[in-house]
Amino acid sequence: MATVNLTSEQQAMFMHAAPRTFVPIPGGWGRLGSTNVLLAYAKEAMVESVLEMAWRTAAPKSLLKRMVSCQARKAAERAKTVRAQLSRVLGQLDAGDALWLRHVSASTWSARRE
């Protein structure tokens, strides 16, 4: 068994999703969101999710802001790397391949929009 501190809303969400796994602590602490996690019934993904949510609930807001800006910066760097790789590949195509790729891309895009 493990114990996590959630908000009341988060606790209700997890209890609804897996009532055998997430049980409020008896008394006032449980009404405030303190929750027992019965690991014998828990799925790994659910435990990871509840731990992350509990951590985000307790973490200082300044730390969360730094993490979000760091994640955004890493995502931008990954996108830049992907664009560079794609540009390199497209630069190696001959004119016929490039024309075919534009046609396929346009067809795929219009099919997704319908």
Number of helices: 5
Number of domains: 2
Radius of gyration: 23 Å
Which outline best applies? elongated
Uncertain ranges: none
Number of strands: 3
Q: What can be said about the biggest beta sheet?
A: 3 strands, antiparallel
Helices and strands, in order, run as EHEHEHHH
What proportion strand?
5-15%
- Going by helix content, strand content and strand pairing, the class is mainly alpha
Strand ordering within the main sheet: 1-3-2
Helix content: over 70%
N- and C-termini, Cα separation: 49 Å
Compute the average pLDDT.
Answer: 83
Structure, explained:
There is one protein chain. The chain is mainly alpha-helical and 114 residues long. The chain has 2 domains: 2-58, no CATH class; 62-113. Helix content is 70%, strand content 10%. It is built from 5 helices and 3 strands, in the order βαβαβααα. It has helices spanning 8-17, 28-31, 44-58, 61-92, 95-113; strands at 2-5, 22-24, 34-37. Strands 1-3-2 form a 3-stranded antiparallel sheet. The longest helix has 32 residues, at 61-92. It is elongated, with a radius of gyration of 23 Å. The mean pLDDT is 83.
Write a concise synopsis of the structure shown.
The protein has 114 residues and is mainly alpha-helical.
Topology (SSEs and partners):
Blueprint: E1 2-5, H1 8-17, E2 22-24, H2 28-31, E3 34-37, H3 44-58, H4 61-92, H5 95-113
Antiparallel strand pairs: 1-3, 2-3
